[in-house]
Amino acid sequence: MDRWNTQPTSSPEHFQHTQAPEPEASQPHPKRKSGLWWKLPLSLMLGCCIFLGGVLGYIVATLYQELPAIDELGSFRPSSISRMYDRNGVLIGEFFREKRIPISLQTLPEHVYYASIAVEDATFFEHGGLDFQGIIRAATKNFQAGRVVEGGSTITQQLAKTMFLTSERKLTRKIKEAFLAFKIDSTLEKQHILELYLNQIYYGRGAYGIEAAAQNFFNKSAHELTVAEAAMLAGMPKAPSRYSRDINDAETQQRWRHVLNRMREERAITESQFDEAINTPLAITGHIGQLNDAPYVSDFVRNAIIEKHGEDLLYREGVSIYTTVDIRAQHVAHEAITKAKQEYIQRREGRRLPHELTPEDIQFALLSIDNHDGAIIAMVGGTDFYTNQFNRAMNGQRQTGSAFKPFVYSAALEKGLSPATIMVDAPMIFPSSELVWKPENYTQRFYGPTSLRNAVAQSLNVVAVKVLQEVGIGTAIDHVRRLGITAPINRDLSIALGSSSVTLLELTRAYSIFPAEGRRHEPYLIQRVVDRDGKVIEEHIPSFEQAISPQVAYVMTSMLQSVITDGTGRSLRSLPMTLAGKTGTTNAFNDAWFFGFTPRYTTGVWTGFDVPRTMGHGEAGARSAAPVFAEFAKNYFDSEPAVDFPVPEGVVFRRIDPTTGQLAREGAPNSIMEVFVAGTEPRDVSTGSTQDQMIDLFQLRGGDTP
Length: 706
Known about the structure:
single chain; 706 residues; alpha+beta; five-stranded mixed sheet; elongated
């Protein structure tokens, strides 16, 4: 490869000139007739030439004046891809207008950049930006062929065009391109020009620059490219849409062989390297186009970065964005939602819905967060981002139904009520100026004296309303605000049954406070943003506020465990993990919810139509939303250690009579162990009835049954 390392040759020696002999004396010519007839055309021609020369000089001078400044080209940093990673460092998304990953020429093996030199500009290291022999040769071949078969542009000219000009086919553009090429060549070192070119040129299929092309087509860095792969990529810039379409296409293969032949002819590779490369089968193994394994996450991150830092940071600066999501959790969540949608469509097959929507229009959303710091580990905002980009997990406000009840009960625990408090579940009528409100249970039955634990487990409506009456609407709303719910809340008793509309994000955050020992963390998705030089631009430092006491949080968690062991969520008892949760269903089955949490994670699920319409009779939270959670928990929480919710100081356990809520008589066979915030435990011994068996709720683990 000696010829590639040579410097431009020195100026040639002066030619030796000898004096030519004087011509022999000639015979005098006969006299011609003098006249001025021939001088007029000559004067006109000379005048036209001067005029045209002046016009041409003016045009050239004007074009030269219009040339863009290239003073900063030496420190130019090309636009670069911004990349998004999950919590484990896995690449899950990319942001770019031009997919470009800058790379230093020094990191590339010679055959990678000599492939481009050999096929695009063999005299690159010798000319001054313009290859006049190449221009004449290309013009001759194009004239002979009657069409453009060869270009005469040097690498420097191509760089000038891509960085400063357009691709329009005009003489003025070509003149500007030539001037710019000369200026660039006289300003920058050849190696710098070549590096800029390799980072700037378009290779096809969205890839700008050799590094992006190598990753797009061969799933490797450019410094790992073989001779065969480098030749394939070097041939693409001439006609990216044609040669990058299919590397096994006949035209593409012909172009590839041409590049290899040029590399051999110019001694950029040896004969043995040529033979090895020409016999190497190539296949696309990289990802083509823009990565997007978590589209709702990508969309959220895009909007957040642009809002805070502007578009240039995201689309030009090549930042690295480290998120809190786990791509495995994202995939599991998406699969769970896809499965639930198919099951819903099958359930409704042959049964028309009483409105204009079809079962295929059903939507789901899932959000899962880490209780320890509020980090979002999974977020799916709908069934198909590419059909509808609205993020139902973060932005969709819907009525909460029974999913709101635990917040009323936790407010009651703060006021001194306990899981053993007895309320009478019986019909109630609430007259108002507009209508008569008569809350009923989902089963349309009433159960008489009922403990608050059982009322939560069975999601009894009347008891929830009575508890809200006991607590007070204002007190309950203040409590809900401390849990992080900022949505407007109705100031009437209907809020006990979830008449207010709240986002999945706010509800999931509020539920996560119970397993987090009363601490409220702000959910976040972006851990940190780092620029291409390694400087941290943004970093989230987790913090929390103590929203409720650890004692209230633990007792409420215990009550929600009963939803799984004995209540509306008992279909989840078989899951092999410590679990608590709550179902939620709104009037007419318009919305279905499920919120479940382990000691580590809280996950919320919503399902319904975008336009509130019934999903059909029986499509309650336990049937429509809980299976999504079950599928997600089964396949993602499978490796979570089986630990119990931590018991804080300040709670006490007492054996009680479940029918009266009082302390159980010694040896009473129907007694159960109950938990209380210290100071709210019963003092009196029950004289009530007994049952035949003893149940200890605190001996239950996971899916065990009494």
